[in-house]
User: What shape does this take?
Amino acid sequence: MTLIPFDDRDGFIWFDGEMVPWREAKIHVINHGLHYGSSIFEGERCYNGKIFKSLEHTARLFNSAEILGMSIPFTPDEITAAKDAVLKANNLTDAYVRPVAWRGSEQMGIGAQLAKTHVAIAAWQWPSYFSEELREKGIAMITSPWKKPRPDTAPCHAKAAGLYMINTISKHFAENQGYNDALMFDYRGYPVEATGANLFRIKNKILRTPEPDCFLNGLTRQTVIELARELGYTVEIDHITEEDLYAADEVFLTGTATELTAVGKINQTQYVVGPVTRHLRESYSKLVRGQAYK
Assistant: This one.
């Protein structure tokens, strides 16, 4: 597979209030975000020229900043408008959008309250996270050796870059074992999510998804809960035990990048990509494109 480096592409990136050529959007190697993880971001998808839930993503970016004690030097309206400007500058109508904010180079050390907060927004074409073949048979997952931290030990409700370290090493662990993704358990021993997506299990056409008390409450997760209830399904928000998961009829994941992705295998347990998953996946695809889905 040929990789296209993200630092060597055509296009434009919105950087601290200005649109700059993609290759010129650079920062110094000595900056607090790189060395101490003081960085937050969003992942958003644009369908037919419109970012799905753009305002909600902007609000979450500012909430993450507040949790980390960062002050974004732009208003929410300015960030939302900048996202649209990036899409226009790059002639994109279906794309992935990545706002990111980080503490800069003014201070180094644990304390950096005088460091300036920088903001950049990029966008690029990014098709389905998993291949069409995997969408049809479902992805394979293996239990991660790492667990999600207690909510009083990490800012788990912020979309903070530093929190993704255990997700990355868990994803690499899964890939090295021949799986597509890793199943993350929380500190209590409940399965709660994948490395970048929320978890749903279906039994007798009833959906259950964990209470997001120690992991990010995904906007796609919230959307699918609302969508499922509109379509007449019962949705329970409660712990999922390991036994519950293995006894499920269907399992799927939700996330901006993954959208709604079926799971075909967890460890040695096999699942079918069943009718409820297919119904919700089709309805979600229509919803985000502004089409009738009922």
Q: What stands out?
A: The chain has two domains: 12-124, 132-288.
